[in-house]
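In practice, a research group might receive sequence data for several interacting partners and want a quick structural hypothesis before committing to experiments. The following worked case mirrors that situation: the sequences arrive first, and a predicted assembly follows.
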Amino acid sequence: MAKLPKKDELMNYKYEVPPSDWMDTAVDIRPGTYCYGAKGKNLEAVNFPNARDWSPVDEDWHLPDNWQEIFLNGMAERLDKYRSFRLFMDVCVRCGACADKCHFYMGSGDPKNMPVLRGELLRSVYRRYFTTSGKLLGRIAGARDLTEDVLKELWFYFYQCTECRRCSVFCPYGIDQAEITIMGRELFNLLGLNTDWISGPVANCYMKGNHVGLEPQTILSNIEFMMDDLEDITGKRIEPRFNKKGAEILFVAPSGDLFADPGIYTCMGYLMLFEQLGLDYTMSTYASEGGNFGFFTSNEMAKRLNAKIYAEAKRLGVKWILGGECGHMWRVVNQYMDTWNGPADFLEVPVSPITGTKFENARSTKMVHIAEFTADLIYHNKLKLDPSRNDHLRITFHDSCNTSRGMGIMEEPRYIIKNVCNNFFEMPEETIREKTLCCGSGSGLNAGENMEVRLRGGFPRANAVKYVQDKHGVNVLANICAIDRAAMPSLMDYWVPGVQVMGVHELVGNALIMDGEKERTLNLRGEPLPGKGGEDDV
Amino acid sequence: MYNGGKIIAGLIIFAAIITSPFLLNIGKADEAPQPSLDTPAINQMSEKKCVESAEFMRTGHMQMLNDWRDQVVRNGDTVYVSNSGQEYEMSLENSCLKCHSNKQEFCDSCHTYAQVDPYCWDCHTDTKGAGQ
Amino acid sequence: MKIWSSLLAVIALVFIAWVGAGVLHLSTFFGIVLPYLALIIFLAGFLLRVIKWGKSPVPFCIPTTCGQQESLPWIKPNKIENPTTTWGVIWRMILEITLFRSLFRNTATEKHDGNLAIGSAKWLWFGSLLFHWSMLVIIIRHLRFFTEPVPVLIQGLEFMDSFLQIGIPLLYMTDVFIVLALSYLFLRRVAIPKVKYISQAADYFPLLLLLGVAISGILMRYFFRVDVVGVKELAMGLVTFRPVFSAEIGPIFYIHLTLVSCLFAYFPWSKLMHAGGIFMSPTRNLANNSRMVRHVNPWNYAVKTHTYDEYEEEFRDKMKKVGLPLEGEG
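A structural hypothesis for the assembly, expressed as tokens:
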């Protein structure tokens, strides 16, 4: 990981523009601002073209000789396949409403991080090769040649977009830079220009079933460790089930929750809940990833990774699928999965075996979000909860970009939090729900080497957290996203020290009163619960 | 998903709206009105001329009447000297309508055609009482 | 450069019309040929562009959801901002198209030392709305030249637009609004550095052209008067395919008409096509119901996956060791 820059260095920017026109302003790819180039072997693992080791800072990117042809043909193909792409190339009026909505622009002041200009980087190429005016008039029509410098600039800024869709909320025509970024990244992948942080997890997920590359025995031993801890905390031994045929429900979580702090605490929460309910569920080591870094690579790659979930549900003969807390996973499940790999006619419309609620909203895809599932349980009084165990926590909730703007799951997690905690505070209205600010690390940007960009991109979110920290003493940032759980801690430590990052089901796990459990003196992190340990701490 | 049907339906509606001026006028042979000069007063004139030239009056009469009103009401000045040096009383009813006593065939024919609704007639009436 | 070339282009158009119609008296070309040509280009170009968009499918259901989803019966969904039904989508589109719902959300971000402040910013919304509605009223009002008798609806609109009864001919409020709104939209492009930075000639030109249209129209109505009956006669002649010139019409009319014709002809090849584009935008015109009803991608194709059997083959021993159930025996 690169050395962290100083705060005042990061904050030393203004919302100003350079003296030279953006077409004449060269891109500066410097350490801290980019992710390492993909390794050839990872691209080969998924049969991607032009696989090679490369580095963005090299003068020579070792592009294939006909790289322009590949790029432009790829563009033509995608213009014909995606109405969104063609439309968004044509109809932008450059009103600038999106400009200061992007967290990367808000945190860096770099005008090419304004969504409108990020889009123009590619639109200028589109005009040059796909419109009459651009072919005839060139630069005065806003067109420019596709040179290597232009390619590098495109690459640099399209890997400084987290596909969060915030710009699209404010655009009067709904132009979604995420769509443009997705197309751009598809084109880069035709040239072998992926990043290491995305291509590695993709190869892992393809071969081993999950991004972090956990092999089946490792998943089991990781879970084993968690269950040991849980036994200490609750006095109960939980035996999660894997690859079990004939179970009612297949549970798929983002693999981050099986892997590292603080995701594992969220995972403990899931499993405690299932145990308490006596749910007939299984997890899978093959489909052990809900997230999808293929989505940050190409539509095809995303589909190839996502296919495992339905395939495994079919093989195991489950009735329906339950999904864990993850952001882009739910964008994919909600908007893509059924289209790619459906119809899931071998599954049944999901019904909660505890409350009998039929999840009509998932009647085709047959996959339910765990926040929907748990909110339903609480609403029907099926859980015994002791929110006072979370009394030392002062909580705010961060809506993840994908679940808020690509799905709309906003009330369910809030309902859960309000039932398992007593101290809940909203961040300012302009920074939550559909206007939520990104963590700055989504869409495969949560690497270590680009920490400066992540800190800048996460600054607006962190600044809103700081606001509630100052005002209400908030010390927990709750979320329903594995990338948030992975990325936010370092962001909080840097910008808002003293704020912990927790999945909603960690809070559930803490408050959940399990049958036959011992008196809780520790939270899921193994820390003493204030006021519960017989000691006089407050 | 293409939604081709919806797009084509939308385009047909759009094309219909854009060409509606053409469609609404199919089969209509429209002619511009010819304001009638056939009134007893005009017929008696040896030299048929208005206070100013017809070309000027055609584009400028509304402005002239507006000026007349201001002159009379605000300055008490009632005499208009035309370009040719002739003097007229600045009065819609006593000057204009004296000759053009056929408001309907003269004034209204063009006003209706061009969809102009002058507020002159909110107060003034034509002398024959044919207006209001 | 981008501003000056746009301004120059508009001035050149004015000059051409003035010389052509006013000095050379090419009234047939500027009064008949050009308007017909412009309308044909506009209509054909518009239709072709939309058809081109329509030929690209919408492979995925990608609405931008701006409110609570429909999930559990006791959670109130936002039926318009996160629609699941066609009616919801229709309402969403009506709000977008008539009231610029998304632009109304606009905020401005300011940086004060180490903190960001996000405040409300409605001027862009107001200016755009004022311009577009004025434009619509003005276009409808112009139908008085193309209809005989003039429909009551248009008479009513005309009455309301001029009800302040200022001046002779009566001042239209929309004439004032459109000039103010266009001036605002132009000035913000010039005066706000970041907006200037993203602006292209293709942004200045239409604004200046529209300003030219509005100003020439205002000059014609209030200052250099023309024979309105002659204008209507020409207009009616055009729409009945019997165009005639019965009266001499002043050059300002031809300047106005030429600028309007250029606007029409320019429209389909420019960003002005956002007018058609907004109806087609997949982030707005789709229902968020892709978990309820399967959205079909017409070019969906089979892909190579890493199957469970391949996976088990690779990890069989390890799986066996930890007691995971297996399909095949190793």
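Before designing any experiment, note the following. The mean pLDDT of chain C is 95. The longest strand of chain C covers residues 107-112.
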